[in-house]
Amino acid sequence: RDMVKTTGVAVHHFPQGVDWGDGNTVFVAIGIAAKSDEHLGILKQLTKVLGADGVEQRLREAKNEQEIIALLNGDVQLSADFDASLIQLNFPASDMVQMSAVAGGLIKNTGSAGPEFVADLVTKAPTHLGQGLWLVGSNRHVSRTAVSMVSTANACQYEGQDVRALIAFAACNNAHQPILNTLSGLVFNNEQQALLNATTEQILALL
Fold first, then answer.
1. Considering the entire predicted model, what is its pTM?
2. 102, 163, 174, 198: most buried, per Cβ within 10 A?
């Protein structure tokens, strides 16, 4: 420490990866020179950031210094906003337009998107995922990627297919992709009912 003039961090990016020995390939190496205990705060930040889903791939694919700095500072959204406030179960909707409006409204109310997003969402043709589960999304006037889910208490249909629940996403980056991948897995395994019959807590755990 007595050789350190001021605390600093150096980041080396290896897009193709380098052999670090013992079978380890390194794409990003971070060096820290700490004059005091300041490095503990740096390590805490790095631990928080590097523990997030998807950050490793984002760092590997980073195109410039600014993108790497933003990722390590936690300034880049790595996962879609999705919590209990974005889930509305058993809403008394009678058609898909109402479902889309409610799903979009939940996202708008978090501040992740503007009213233009809701207006665009209700004009979109949703995709049927089977067993009454539907998916719709928009990227219009979205400031943060978010996902919402609405289920209906009424028996209604859209284009001759039952409507039981609608999952909506607002996308301004790829942060929603992990949830879509999980959803695709559920649909592939014909496990839509697990979502359709789940509580709010169970839905959050499933997705």
1. 0.69
2. 163
